[in-house]
């Protein structure tokens, strides 16, 4: 059987941590930032963990991660 391919978009967006949890970047921080408050933009910094309801779908996109 041939090797399975990873989804290129998922490779760029997600990182699997050593503990097995999946790290993702925060959304809503790319453009149209003038109407967003400074507090809101500050809280969107950094990374977050993929929610447990979506982990199965992300793992399917990254078969060797």
TrEMBL record:
Gene3D superfamilies: 4.10.410.60. Keywords: Ribonucleoprotein, Ribosomal protein. InterPro entries: Ribosomal_bL35, Ribosomal_bL35-like, Ribosomal_bL35_CS, Ribosomal_bL35_sf. One of its GO terms (biological process) is translation. One of its GO terms (cellular component) is cytosolic large ribosomal subunit. It comes from the Bacteria. One of its GO terms (molecular function) is structural constituent of ribosome. Pfam families: Ribosomal_L35p. NCBIfam families: rpmI_bact. Belongs to the bacterial ribosomal protein bL35 family. PANTHER family: 54S RIBOSOMAL PROTEIN BL35M, LARGE RIBOSOMAL SUBUNIT PROTEIN BL35M. This is Large ribosomal subunit protein bL35. It comes from Polynucleobacter kasalickyi. The lineage of its organism: Bacteria, Pseudomonadati, Pseudomonadota, Betaproteobacteria, Burkholderiales.
């Amino acid at each position: 059987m041939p090797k399975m391919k990873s989804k290129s978009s998922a490779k760029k967006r997600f990182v699997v941590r050593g503990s097995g949890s999946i790290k993702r970047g925060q959304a809503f921080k790319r453009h149209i930032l003038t109407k967003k408050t400074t507090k809101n933009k500050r809280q969107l910094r950094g990374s977050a963990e993929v929610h447990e309801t979506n982990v199965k779908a992300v793992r399917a996109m990254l078969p060797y991660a």
